[in-house]
Amino acid sequence: MGFLDISNLQKSFGATQVVKDFNLSVEKGEFISFLGPSGCGKTTTLRMVAGFEVPSAGTIRIDGRDVVRLRPNQRNIGMVFQSYALFPNLTVADNVGFGLRVAGVPRTDRAERVAEMLAIVGLADFGARYPFQLSGGQQQRVALARALAVRPQVLLLDEPLSALDAKIRVSLREEIRAIQRKLGITTIYVTHDQEEALSMSDRIVVMNNGVADQVGAPFDIYNRPATRFVASFVGTLNLLDVRVVDAGAGTVSLGGTTVPLGRQLRGDKVTLALRPEAVGLAPSDGRTLGVEGRIAEVHFLGSVIRIRVRVGDARISLDTFNSADHPPPQVGDPATVWLNPRDLMVLAD
Ligand code: ADP
Ligand code: MG
């Protein structure tokens, strides 16, 4: 049993079931992301853990205690929302100390804890300010300090960086992760941003339509996606519908070349997935299979050039690094696409 256990969790609004049999066991100190497109049930699931939403069925246990019937303030959780939701008429220090005051923590202890929390989020000198005097990123740090001040057992964050601009988002995600590690607090982080989930998490729960499609470490989710949905939602992906040459031998035809997949196949067509970074325009150690094609698109992105090569009916995207000595290929040029057959993933639907 984990520190936070969610079993057979379900939620319906009227006739619509938005969370369907959700199961997850989170270890103490783990950082878990719920990753999925808008409307897939991330917030609803998180709100059930927090106690803002009553499950239609299922159990939630924190540290061995069934919390489903407890109110949010009895669950020992801290929560951070997308909108910072600070009290505009309270100073930063009073915002951070709010939960402590409600809990009846004496003034001097409170002041000490508030100072400690503000130091942790890098706002030691900001206690006397009001929220409107802070940037969005600073306000979200205050919200984080406020959530952590009551020393919760579980920290829940719902798209906390979505409202911030790109540069702040990247620096703040590193900071949140560092603080989470330092405090060792069990955390669930909701996001629709795959890069956030991949860079921050111990494990990612990829959600699709109220179901956890796959639960795994970022490396495994990215490199061994369990379903077509996971493969296409996480990262850029080439999807290749190819003809099976010999199902028993596990060979397919890719642009006229017969490619061994090293496993038995079913049917006469399969969908293969291939990451752009697994493909190159030159052979290399692992990339021993060359498939003939023609350059269809060239997108100069700065440090990286994204190239699409037409191979038979398929288009294969690949990335090359810019080099001032080598101008990129031209549309229409013949090209050989090099890959390692082991990088071809056979997808289940
Ligand atoms: P996400 O956070 O992944 O974007 P949500 O959990 O907010 O998704 O929503 C999942 C689905 O549940 C959506 O279709 C949403 O419209 C619906 N939903 C959420 N809250 C309610 C509610 N209070 N009443 C009715 N439908 C809701
Ligand atoms: Mg949401």
TrEMBL record:
Transmembrane segments: none annotated. One of its GO terms (molecular function) is ATP binding. Keywords: ATP-binding, Nucleotide-binding, Transport. Residues 4-234 form the ABC transporter domain. This is ABC transporter ATP-binding protein. The lineage of its organism: Bacteria, Pseudomonadati, Pseudomonadota, Alphaproteobacteria, Rhodobacterales.
